[in-house]
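Input chain follows. Return structure tokens only.
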Amino acid sequence: MAGVEGLRGRDVVGARRRSAGGRAGAAVLTREELTGPVVDVARELIGCTIRHGEAAGTIVETEAYHESEPACHAYVGRTARTIPLFGRPGTAYVYFSYGMHALMNVVCEPEGVGAAVLIRALEPIDGLELMRKRRGLVRDWDLCSGPGKLTQALGVGLELNSTDLFEGPIRLGPPEGPRPEILVGTRIGITKAPDLPWRFAAAGSRHVSKPWPPGAREALAAAVV
């Protein structure tokens, strides 16, 4: 993780694994690929898919959380709430934020290490009509443009905490196309360790949450042109 701290703006080269060959275009996403450093995994999950029933989306924004820093729930150790964070890579960690919104995370790093990637935004790809019924009459790019919005759109609640993302009912899948350019910024909506550049987003996507990460507005303008 130490190599990530100095990054800002666009990460044109991409994650360390991508520069070494990566898994772009791979047919499957394996549990082993989630055992690496959480910051690497958070970047690598951009472009992967999340499906729950008929509704699905492509991951366009993530944030990394690790037990070594105070913004992570695992920082306090094992409690009734945080036990899933120390579990098997590929476990879903779903919790309520302020008692209102369910937030969905992908547990990663080796079992016994408290680390997870928060899924912050999706680009809807399947089940849009169902998402609109769940979310109301909002613009399509606002259906999943936030961690609480996407769980509502997918129908993911606290009852799916600790479920396996490879066995269902929520399914984590590999990228279905070329990997996007990645934007890097600091995490938002937190007061502890706010300066860590552990937020990642797909450049040019209008589905990311606001405030947008550095370079997002310029990348979107370039993509539209």
